[in-house]
Amino acid sequence: MAEKQVKINLNKLLNDHGISLRELSRLADIRHATLSELANNKRKSIHFDHIKRISEALNITDIRKIIEIVTIEDEQH
Predict the structure, then answer these.
(1) pLDDT tens, 19-54?
(2) To 10 degrees, what angle do helices 48-58 and 21-28 make?
(3) For the chain, what is the mean pLDDT?
(4) Architecture of domain 2-73
(5) Which of 9, 39, 74, 75 is the most exposed place for a label (fewest CB within 10 A)?
(6) Which sequence spans correspond to the domains of the chain?
(7) Three-class SS of residue 62?
(8) What DSSP state is assigned to residue 41?
(9) By the 8 A CB rule, do 67 and 8 touch?
């Protein structure tokens, strides 16, 4: 059975907008370490306020550009 996971598209957003993680940290007023963990899928959750700040910093109106649900194949079978 396939498992679902929430994916944060931070690396794609950084590439699309031509900015660094450090610059996004400054623009969104979010700790660099927090953004790094999100970009590397090291965090299991994201605060709604962080989504809002990222969207404001990058002028994004569609939340699907920031987060998405992906299917992860079950590796047990």
Answers:
(1) 999 999 999 999 999 999 999 989 888 999 999 999
(2) 110
(3) 91
(4) Orthogonal Bundle (1.10)
(5) 75
(6) 2-73
(7) coil
(8) T
(9) yes
